[in-house]
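for the writeup, i need someone to sanity check this before i put it in the appendix. the sequnce is what the collaborator sent (i think, or maybe the updated version? ugh). structure was predicted straight from it, no edits. if anything looks off just tell me and ill rerun, i have time this weekend
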Amino acid sequence: MSQNARTDAEAIFRAGVARVDPRSMITRTVSLNGSILQIQQGNQIHSWDLECFNRVLVLGFGKASARMALGIEDLLGGRISDGLIAVKHGHGEKLSRLRLVEAAHPVPDQSSVDAATAILELAHQADERTLVILLISGGGSAILCAPWHQGEHQLSLADKAAVTSALLACGADIREINTVRRHLSAVKGGRLAAALHPATTIALCLSDVLGDELSSIASGPTAPDSSSWADALAIVERYGIKDRLPESVKNILQDGAAGLVPDTLKPGDPRFERVQNIIIGSNRQAALAAAAEADKRGYKCLYLGSRVTGEAREAACFYLGLAASCAAGETSLTAPACIIGGGETTVTLHGQGLGGRNQEMALAFALGLANTPEDLAARICFLSAGTDGNDGPTDAAGGFADLQLLQAAAQGGANPQRSLADNDSYNLLAAAGGLLKTGPTNTNVCDLQICLVR
């Protein structure tokens, strides 16, 4: 029964991922009627006449940008004048009209700087007769890395990488991480929009952030930023990582908070007047498609929304509590049931192991199952996985949790408690047959959790 549950959980997850395939989303939302380019945003349709422009420039960055670019090439073909797409290593596609470069994620490297330099060079060539189509998706913050270089503040790639590593390890959430990264960048926080001005810019965004906040998707390169230098400084102080940052970063944060460094672009800035930001895909769309697949398979569904945050191991306790209550007949949701949620949790690193937030959640869920009455635990199967196919610095999308996993771990002599304490979820799940490996999906809308109760 457990293996069947895993099969169902994986199929439900894959249905959610398929719904947010970037190429398909471009096809659904963008159309060309003669020379009129139309983009549907909910009940609203935006239109541009391509005859009004001398050039069409296509720029993209993020894990999903290559597949988004395929959709744009299908649509516009020879109307594309030039363009460049920057993706995470291993997430490329074969493009026919646009150049493609691969860069590092989640910690930027020189290839990330080279990608940003090339895109900025193209951006500065745009004029008022240029239509720029931007393809933005999660991962763009690292893939497009342009350290601040102005006046006495000259940040390096090493500075940016150190900041990113410190933020990822301290337990800061994605909004906090992006607030800091925006302020240390020459392209984020609306600064790419400033570089593109006075061109007409259409930014098509695949959201990987809670609430689909534009300023947080790839750190908001074409969106107004309401946060300040003081906010960025407060975040590094709140997590106690200020002393671990390079002196150059501490200096610019302090000078920025004192009003001595220009801030990111704010709402109402005239350089946004010719910019249209449009979200074409989100975690909610993936979760609803997953729920539809669960319904086809005979499960009653409870969708918890797409704002699941906090420590991964604490979120696991929440999901397990719901599942056990359902299995015990204590809720209005009755078995067979499927509980679906989405979002992006965090992991505060205490050990030296290997894993990601989804694998850590699965391992913590499994440990909770060990303390759940067996008649209830035997009916529960849990899967947490990243829609991009990569969970942390591993080759797995996420992991399963059920009694089968615990039994396999015990037979192999593994110690789940020790593995969790060392943040070593990957190796335990691998040994116990609990990893989900999809390979890169070339999309990215945060994570999905699928919890089945038989």
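The chain has a mean pLDDT of 95. The domain at 13-283 is CATH 3.40.50.10180 (Rossmann fold).
thx in advance!!
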